[in-house]
Design goal:
The structure is a single chain. By secondary structure, this protein is of the alpha/beta class. The chain has 4 helices and 11 strands. It has helices spanning 2-54, 193-196, 292-297, 303-345; strands spanning 56-59, 62-68, 87-91, 110-112, 133-135, 156-158, 180-182, 203-205, 226-228, 249-251, 272-274. Its main location: cytoplasm.
Amino acid sequence: MNETSVCVGTFTAVKTLWEVRIHKINEELQKEKEFRQRLLLVWEERAALAKLKEKVINEDGRAILRIEEEEWKTLPSCLLKLAHLQEWQLHRTSLQKIPHFIGRFHSLLVLDLSRNSIESVPKEIGQLTSLQELLLSYNRIKSVPKEISNCVNLERLELAVNRSICDLPPQLSDLKKLSHIDLCMNQFTSIPSALLNMPNLEWLDMGGNKLQELPDAIERMENLHTLWLQRNEITSLPETIGNMKNLNTLVLSNNKLRNIPACMKDMTSLRFVNFRDNPLELEVTLPPCENEEEEEQQEMFGIEFMHVYIQESLRKTGMAFLLTLISLEYTQADGYLGLLKHFKRK
């Protein structure tokens, strides 16, 4: 019995010893595996950083990261070692997201990530207080974060052809230096209030949206000189558009306009306008050109067309008013005659 107990005890001790040794071996193997993984990650980051450094160029005194038509679905954190960059130009890279560490690139002046697969803009974008240009056209962005309003030096914002954006946060009106905005090919049904309150906005493209009308408050965009509104569903223009004294380019082709307001004849700064492909009520003919050169320069639905159309519209309106007055006079005259006949009978 004692021998059996000794054997069992010895077996248990040996088993425990082997279990301890196996556990230690497994721990060492796990540590070695983790070390190899860390080492691989370090090498991958070094390789990625080396590759990124090859993409950095100096142009006009700026450090620019330029990548074209190479697949970078995500950007590695080692990019932070290039925090001195002043421009990112990443086009057709299949980039799916803007990294959250973007806010640590305080020297960034231009962030150009056009023609990628980005679906959202992180709120950390608002930490880029030196940023002057934010170019995110041809992506899949659905909404615009209010934190962009913290980019106090922003001058240019491009969100064209994202196809899903339908509004802008009102806080964007705080961007006092913003002068150029491209929102074409999205889902806007009205001009966002933020745009109406931007004092220095000069250039705006909202073509290819679903606008049905322009607000009366559009006159508040007093510094606007270029307005693109082609391919919308606009049926009429407000009288206040005539107060936009600095507007020199207005594109309204492919809408549903039936008339051109007479107030536009007083827009003396207007140099280019396009009313092509609208169901306008009046058919007007431009006066013949004296030579071929004039004919080449003549815009079929441009400035001259607009003025001729307004003149014809006013002429027809005046004639209609005159006919109404004559009709009223005849009606009144018939009334007087009727009264005279009535009294004569008496």
